Structure formats: structure tokens, C-alpha cells
Amino acid sequence: MNKFADIIETIKKYDKIIILRHQNPDPDALGSQKGLALTLQVAFPDKTILIGGQNAEGLKWLSTMDHVKNDDFKGALVITTDTANTPRVDDDRYDQGDFLIKIDHHPNDEAYGDQLYVNTDASSSSEIIADLIASSSDLTLTKEAAYYLYAGIVGDTGRFMYPATTEHTMCVAGRFLSLDIDAPGINQKMNEITLQQAKLQGELFDRLKVDESGAAMAIIDDDLMNKLDINQEQANSVVSTPGRLGNVFAWLEAVQKYDGTYRIHLRSKGPVINELAKEHDGGGHPLASGANAKDLEEVDQMYKKLIKIVTDFKKGE
Predict the structure, then answer these.
(1) DSSP readout, the chain?
(2) Whole-number pLDDT of residue 142
(3) Most C-beta atoms within 10 A of its C-beta, which of 127, 221, 229, 263?
(4) CB atoms within 10 A of CB 269
């Protein structure tokens, strides 16, 4: 595992740096990517710093991407943030640069890259970027960068509600607040949903299957999304909704994709669910993971496994 100092020295060697993150980005992916880019641009104004990937329609208020051409990768340093494995990098050209660095807080199941820094105790990749900045006299935490990094931490901690929030997380967030960032504005944006998404929450509770063990499942299919005039990205806004029920310990949400397969969102209040995700073309954190299912039969298989996981967890309490 590389140290921050090693990463800074590598950054200094390259005139062109491309920063990537995972597909279907969340605030932490975008915040860590943009926060790092802004910091490096201030520290090294003569370098070309680009951020790449597909734009997330619902998060354009937070960050939009640069147009990164094939030629840009030639001789470039490529850095990925918040991306556990290479299939999830939101640019297939990630390996076409001269050197690759991985910075992440997910379990290090794929130790890719020429250098890597992984801290699974960090609440978010944005927290790691803040620590990277604090570790170096070459880097300065600016108000603009702090805005994006705060958004990343707020996103991954559920506004400091999830167990990954630590004393250090709060200290880092405090540094951001000391720069007078618009924290209330970020929190409000995180809390906003459309009328269609609000209706989806109601539909989800109507459709939610809750086993006596405390495992739950909801399926958001094309028919429901068409009925409410929402897309897959907007459907992701209700991922945390089942957790508001006191009798739900872990849950699975299956969102139908354009090709008929399903994107699986797994969340938990205690039972470890990332091993289940790994069995189905996914992975992630012990209490928050993603996976894929080819059809409803596979979704049902996953739900049965989730019921067993929760049942075993409660027996061991």
C-alpha cells in the first residue's frame, strides 16, 4: 500500500492528469473526483487536469464532466477515486495512460493500479482526499474544493447517520465548515426529490415484501417507472426508504434496466451483505452494496439468501 507522500510525488511528475470515478456516480464519487481536481489545479496551475465519465443527470448541480479525448490519455497520469474494481470505472480507457493510481475506501477486492491507497475505515473517498490534502505542504484545502468534498461525505454517511461516520469524519467536516461553505445548501439539495419520486416512495411501501426475519425486498420495474414518468437514475433516490421501517434489518431493491436485467441495491442496519453482492456481479461495503441480476428469478434467489443472512445475524445477537 502506498503512502500519501508517494502519491504526491507521482502527481508532481506528470503534466497531464485525468481523474475518473465509478459508473452511476453518487455524491462521493463526484465530490472526491472534483475536489481532488480543483486542489491539484490550484497547487499545480501549469498542469492539465481533466475529470471524466458520464454525466449524472440528477447530480449536475454538483459536477459535470470534461470531454476527455483518446489523445488525452497518452502520457497521462490516471487517478481513480471511489472505484473498487476496474469493471466499474466509468471510462474503458482508464488503463491507456502512462500510470494509474487508485484511491478508495471500499474493500480492496481488486488491488489494481501502479499505486493505490485504500482505507476502508474512512467514511468516504472524499474523506480520504481531505486527508491527502492535509498531509502535504504542497496542497491547500480551498473553499471550492471543500464544497465538493463535504457533499461527498454527506452523501456516503447519509448526512452523518450511518455507522461509517467517525470522530475523524466529523473533524474533517468541521474543517470544511470553517471555510464557510454552503453546507445548508448542500444538505437541502441532498434532501430534495421530485413529485414523481415522492409518489415512487409511496408505491415502494405498497410493493415492499417484508419477511418475518426483517429482510425486505422491493422491485421497481419498467411498468412502474413508466407509470410515474421516472428513469432508472431517479428510481435510485428511494434506495434508503425501506430502512425507515423499524422492523426492517436489511433490504434489497431491484431496479429494472433498459436491457431487462436488474440493478440490485443492498442495504443493511447490521447484517453483512457485501458477500452476497459479490456472488452476483457486484460488491461494496459490508452494509451498502450493489449487484446485478439477469432476471426476476435471480432477484428472488438473492432475496432468499438475504433472509438467511438476516436470520443468522439475529441468532448471533
Answers:
(1) ---HHHHHHHHHH-SEEEEE-BSS--HHHHHHHHHHHHHHHHH-TTSEEEE-S---GGGTTT-------GGGGTT-EEEEES-SSGGGBS-TTTTSSSEEEEEE-S--SS--SSEEEE-TTSS-HHHHHHHHHHH-TT----HHHHHHHHHHHHHHHTTTTSTT--HHHHHHHHHHHHTT--HHHHHHHHH---HHHHHHHHHHHHH-EE-TTSEEEEEE-HHHHHHHT--HHHHGGGTTGGGGSTT-SEEEEEEE-TTS-EEEEEEESSS--HHHHHTTT-EE-SSEEEEEESSHHHHHHHHHHHHHHHHHHHHT-
(2) 98
(3) 127
(4) 16
The Cα diameter of the chain in Å comes to 60
**How would you class 195 by CB atoms within 10 Å of its CB: exposed for 0-12, middle for 13-18, buried for 19 or more?**
exposed
Query: What is the distance between the alpha carbons of residues 4 and 87, in angstroms, rounded to a whole number?
Result: 25
Torsion sign over Cα 124, 125, 130, 135: positive
For residue 208, what are the CA distances in angstroms to 152, 184, 253, 310?
29, 32, 9, 17
Q: What is residue 237's predicted lDDT score, i.e. its pLDDT?
A: 83
Low-confidence ranges of the chain (pLDDT < 70): 1, 317
What pLDDT does 1 receive? 59
158-189 exposure pattern, b = at least 16 Cβ within 10 A, e = fewer: eeeebebbeeebeebbeebeeeebebeebeee
Residue 242's pLDDT is what? 96
Residue owning grid cell 477486492:
109
**CA dihedral for 293, 222, 243, 129, sign (positive or negative):** positive
pLDDT of residue 236: 85
Q: How high is the pLDDT of residue 24? A: 87
Q: What pLDDT score was predicted for residue 315?
A: 87
